[in-house]
Amino acid sequence: MSAPTHDRVLAIMGVGLLGGSVAAAARARGVASRIIGIGRNADRLKSAVDAGIIDAYLTDVRTGEADWNFVVVGTPVDQIATDVRSIAAVSRPGTIITDVGSVKAPICRDVGHLPDGQVHFVGSHPMAGSEKRGYEASRADLFVGRVTVVTPNTDTQASAVDSVRRFWESLGSLVVTMNAEAHDRAVATTSHVPHVAAAAVASILKPEQRQLAATGFRDTTRIASGDPEIWVPILLGNSAAVLAGLSELTDSLQSFKKALQEGDAERLRDLLQNGKTSRDAL
Amino acid sequence: MSAPTHDRVLAIMGVGLLGGSVAAAARARGVASRIIGIGRNADRLKSAVDAGIIDAYLTDVRTGEADWNFVVVGTPVDQIATDVRSIAAVSRPGTIITDVGSVKAPICRDVGHLPDGQVHFVGSHPMAGSEKRGYEASRADLFVGRVTVVTPNTDTQASAVDSVRRFWESLGSLVVTMNAEAHDRAVATTSHVPHVAAAAVASILKPEQRQLAATGFRDTTRIASGDPEIWVPILLGNSAAVLAGLSELTDSLQSFKKALQEGDAERLRDLLQNGKTSRDAL
């Protein structure tokens, strides 16, 4: 873990589960001297100050002192690029901006080059979360032992990438660097397709069958409880890769159906073993 | 919870995870005065005696004293009917036999009427388990708070059904009674289709993407670690209902694909909300 960076003034745009957990983790690990929450809802932000998650808040980035030097944008994925650009416009030279969006290529493309070249954006995706929502579900240990993917462009300043990497490491995360497109293909398989599959499995359950839904069903469908408002922009933002993954999934399900129709125990065993081998390798 | 039945001599055929947990639970709750394990592998059964799971063992039901009066058959689903008939043939009058198989209609059909009419079979399916295997993974609390489905035929003796119901309740289970066919359709949706879906999702993961598989992926695919040797007979034993469920699943996935292809946020939100509503109702 890197040494505490007490001169970091941290701004969090969007103090929800992830933004709130970044704040809680930064405070717990002493890597920020001050934490400013930025959002639209003053009542919610006041409560987050009262709860000790943040020290102060702003509802408009243009009205504050802009005394932060490190920004984490935790707003919904379809707003992140706009929010990055708006906070970049009022930030001091040298400020590093990152985000927590689960789709990276559209965000990195839409942020593009920041105007004055002295404020740096590096995309991040901490692979941690919960089906819960809101800063009330924040956890200082949310990132511990979890992978955070950092996705610099080829022309992102190396020191900015380093700074973002060290920030996530200081919260206990294991940092992996890859380009935004490779990230998006991978999370289609590891996160977005499983989310759709969980929702589809959950939706075929009839009310009268609920009493027979045991832990297997609950585990398989847990992520289907996620907020559709969060997931629609994620799926649409990564639709090409998600569609490719869904085609692989339906092909695999077709193979199962064929083996069942033919009563082919050998083939069924192979298909189940493929899944088991892949799962057991985690 | 019913009062301890100290005069119950319990025989467990197949001392694996489920059979072993029945033994451990019965011992912990004082509902058996003696527990006899029955299986093929004398070494494993000896170890189970040493581990205190069972009191004694037999490798051939025809050679023992048959001093049991209650039997739980925990062998693989495609062997249960045969095992029920073979232990019924040597059991004393009044003996009650049940099982733990996760498919009920073929078992209840294949057991049929037991020869002398004085030994009674009532099918059971405790909705508890684990991706682990073997008596070493046994847990005395495995059935606590879990549903056990009891599936009498229309001509099963009422007192035998009561006895089986009270047995599972004495292990902490919540008993639901339904006919074997309705059970099989329900578990296709709540267990067998989710198992296939989990295996299919796991199998599309590429090795280089493993580092991005976080808790969502792990939860969704956890049951794919189940032993294919156990699952092949379950899926084949319930193939009509599983095929119907898989068709519903692929129809739902097709709707997701269409919404993504058309960039239809409203439709995508509805589909995700359907899944969420169903999951949240559990």
Structural class of chain A: alpha/beta
Please give the CATH class of the largest domain in chain A.
Answer: Alpha Beta
Give the oligomeric state: homodimer
Unreliable parts of chain A:
none
**CATH architecture heading of the largest domain in chain A:** 3-Layer(aba) Sandwich
Indicate the overall shape of chain A. elongated
Number of strands of chain A: 9
- Mean pLDDT across all amino acids of chain A: 93
What is the CA-CA span between the terminal residues of chain A?
25 Å
Please identify which CATH superfamily of the largest domain in chain A we are dealing with.
NAD(P)-binding Rossmann-like Domain
Helical segment count of chain A:
10
Give the topology string of chain A: H per helix, E per strand: EHEHEEHEHEEEHEHHHHH
Largest sheet geometry of chain A:
6 strands, parallel
- Could you tell me the radius of gyration of chain A in angstroms? 21 Å
Taken as a percent bin, the fraction of beta residues of chain A is: 5-15%
Share of helical residues of chain A:
40-55%
